[in-house]
């Protein structure tokens, strides 16, 4: 039977109402690629009586019978037939291969027919995005992005970073999704934007497009360092202004509303003085958005100087009256006194006056020695100052250590001591005549009988201008010195030796 005649074709056409599921419902493939028409028949070793493959019901692809295989001239070298399942492989596809494919299979006197559709698509390529602008201002600018690509049956998807862009009040997708328009852009619209294009057989993605969205300034913040609002004259102060802005903001500084010459995000006040007290603020300006923002003012109070304690005299003397005055610049609400780290408890000889500003010692004594600390405070600051008080007294309890008797030619050593602040200066007298000054020790080698007498040590305090004395009464220089005694002993020994020698000589003569 020649199946190229009309009857064979009609047989195939009529048979399409049977054999449902013999071929897949539909196939997609790309130009130049391969399509596989796989039947649902189980592989068999027994050859089919006949297999007819046709395209669009009128063009024969291949006819297989027991005696021969006939391939349509357009399909030579492009197909491979699989006799065990009657499947067909189709290569080097073109757009013209899109259409209906049918197969009629005769086996054991039965005919099975099937059909399916093959659609050929061009692959996606040359995906690119163009933008109407890339330099925009937040809330006042709009941008349009257009996506183009080569291929067939294309669909478009926009991505902002890794998130899909969907239509909203501000976002419009037109021209089948290939155009993206954003109205009143925000900083979150900066991208990167990509256009993903797909077809049934392939996908492609554009290079990223970034938008520069200028915004701000906003959320301005002024930081004072150190953070307290009061400072002593000579302090160093730093004010730092931060703000959200793109591009980075420009800064101006103001004191009590008057613009300062300083610019930049940091204002440094070095070695401050009282005239620099006031309310400081910073203003940020964005040259792209033409917007500005001013911070809340930060109050700075510069005190004239730190607290100080001034004594009525720098050299207090025991028994006299002394006052300590706590001074400070600015408003002082409280003053508290401490001594040696503990709260001061006034004694009978102390008086606090002028709202604790003045501490008076009616008659100061050495027990009042110590560190006095005056702490001042007001609603915004506190400070303090100390004064170490040393009470001068003496001299008193003058004493002399040394012998009352010494042999002639011996060495005389007398030591004088006294209780005194500051340390006393000493002068020595022998029988009322000054013999030594500015020394606590009196030393005399090889004393003579004339060194006997009354030795007086006079102690003098140059601050209290007081003196006190001690006397060694009647120190006596006596006897013979050690050398003298030694000479006498030697002389006696010589005389004795001579006497013994002379007697022995007379004895020998007899």
Q: Oligomeric form of this entry?
A: single chain
As residue ranges, the low-confidence spans are 1-19, 485-510
CATH superfamily of the largest domain: Immunoglobulins
Which class of secondary structure composition applies to the elements? mainly beta
Assign a percent range to the helix content: under 10%
Q: What is the fold-level CATH name, i.e. the topology of the largest domain?
A: Immunoglobulin-like
Quote the average pLDDT. 87
Q: What count of structural domains?
A: 5
Describe the largest sheet: 6 strands, mixed
The CATH architecture classification of the largest domain is Sandwich
Task: Quote the beta fraction.
Answer: over 45%
The first-level CATH class name of the largest domain: Mainly Beta
Total strands: 43
Compute the gyration radius: what is it?
61 Å
Main-sheet strand order equals: 1-9-8-3-4-5
What is the first-to-last residue Cα distance?
Answer: 200 Å
């Amino acid at each position: 039977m020649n199946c190229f005649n009309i009857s064979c074709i009609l047989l195939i056409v009529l048979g399409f109402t049977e054999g449902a599921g013999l071929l897949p419902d539909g196939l997609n493939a790309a130009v130049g690629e391969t399509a596989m028409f796989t039947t649902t028949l189980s592989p068999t070793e027994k050859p089919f009586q006949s297999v007819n493959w046709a395209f669009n019901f009128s063009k024969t692809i291949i006819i297989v019978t027991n005696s021969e295989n006939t391939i349509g001239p357009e399909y030579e070298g492009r197909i491979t037939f699989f006799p065990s399942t009657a499947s067909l492989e189709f290569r080097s596809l073109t757009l013209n291969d899109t259409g209906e494919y049918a197969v009629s299979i005769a086996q054991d006197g039965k005919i099975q027919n099937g059909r399916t559709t093959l659609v050929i698509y061009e692959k996606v390529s040359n995906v690119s995005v163009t933008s109407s602008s890339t330099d925009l201002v937040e809330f006042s600018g709009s941008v349009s992005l257009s996506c183009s690509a080569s291929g067939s049956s294309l669909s478009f998807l926009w991505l902002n970073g890794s998130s899909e862009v969907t239509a909203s009040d501000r976002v419009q997708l037109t021209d089948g999704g290939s155009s993206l328009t954003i109205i009143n852009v925000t900083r979150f619209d900066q991208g990167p934007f990509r256009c993903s294009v797909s077809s049934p057989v392939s996908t492609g993605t554009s290079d990223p497009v970034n938008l520069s969205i200028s915004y701000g300034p906003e959320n301005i913040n002024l930081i004072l360092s150190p953070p307290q609002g009061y400072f002593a004259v000579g302090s160093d102060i730093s004010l730092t202004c931060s703000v959200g802005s793109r591009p980075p903001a420009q800064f101006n500084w103001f004191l009590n509303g008057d613009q300062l010459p300083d610019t930049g995000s940091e204002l440094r006040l070095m070695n401050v003085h009282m005239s620099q007290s006031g309310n400081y603020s910073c203003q940020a300006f964005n040259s792209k958005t033409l917007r500005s923002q001013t911070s809340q003012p930060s109050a700075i109070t510069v005190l004239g100087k730190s607290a100080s304690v001034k004594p009525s005299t720098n050299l207090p003397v025991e028994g006299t009256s002394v006052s300590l005055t706590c001074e400070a610049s600015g408003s002082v609400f409280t003053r508290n006194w401490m001594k040696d780290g503990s709260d001061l408890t006034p004694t009978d000889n102390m008086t606090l006056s002028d709202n604790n500003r003045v501490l008076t010692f009616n008659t100061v004594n050495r027990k009042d020695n110590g560190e006095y600390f005056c702490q001042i405070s007001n609603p915004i600051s506190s400070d303090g100052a100390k004064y170490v008080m040393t009470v001068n007294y003496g001299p008193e309890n003058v004493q002399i250590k040394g012998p009352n008797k010494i042999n002639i030619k011996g060495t005389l050593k007398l030591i004088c001591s006294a209780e005194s602040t500051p340390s006393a200066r000493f002068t020595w007298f022998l029988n009322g005549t000054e013999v030594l000054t500015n020394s606590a020790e009196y030393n005399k080698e090889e004393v003579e009988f004339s060194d006997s007498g009354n030795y007086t040590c006079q102690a003098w305090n140059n601050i209290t201008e007081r003196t006190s004395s001690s006397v060694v009464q009647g120190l006596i220089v006596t006897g013979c010195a050690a050398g003298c005694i030694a000479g006498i002993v030697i002389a006696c020994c010589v005389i004795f030796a001579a006497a013994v020698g002379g007697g022995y000589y007379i004895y020998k003569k007899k």
